[in-house]
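SEQUENCE-TO-STRUCTURE ENTRY
===========================
Question of interest: how does this chain fold, as expressed in backbone structure tokens?
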Amino acid sequence: MSSTKHRNSPVLDKSTNHNKTKDFNSKKRHIEEDTSLNDDLYDPKKPTKSLFDQFLELDLQLSSIFFVCASPNSRWGWCRPLIKIIEIFGDGLVWMLVPVAFLIVTEEKWLIEFCVNILAATAFDLCVLFLLKMLASRPRPVANKGDMLIVVAVDNYSFPSGHCTRAGMMTYIIIEYFNLTGGYIALGGVWVIVMAISRLMLGRHYITDVICGTVVGFMEGAVVIAVWITVDNLESILSLFLRT
């Protein structure tokens, strides 16, 4: 009998109701906090990044994985001098000086024809790069040390990679001009890939820079082959200039 009275005691009922009210208020407060958090996450007034900005961030994150030779203190800094040698072979100045040197010492008509077209292709490539780099105006990665062989104002921009455009263009021209097949094409593909990876390892470019640069280079090569200047055309041009 006493136990029954104890269970139905008003004091206990009041305490129980108070606890229930406290639990209800606590749950309500948590629900309100969660709702407020969701409102912050999906607030239409809050500025969100565009798909293009998200793509650029992903490009940076993936590219930074390859920046292993960006400085002597980098993880693979010990092989930086070797990678910089590869860089020299893709420099525009080299692709201008070497053909000029051959033109000075050779009398072979086919070699003269080839060197003149390589000079014209390099000039064409530099013009295309100037326009694309100025239009994109994409800064180089922060990891870039800025110690390239020759740097002009436009070369402070990253997109597209000039070394990759020249690697793609020259590979295409050489394969088409000499009608190479099989293993030579594979060797050219390896050279293009090595140049692209070297640009990433030195921290000079992003992945999109080297991919687009290579594609632009192949397109440039196709244009050069399509308007190839033959020996006969060269002789006609020279005779025209000599008359004047």
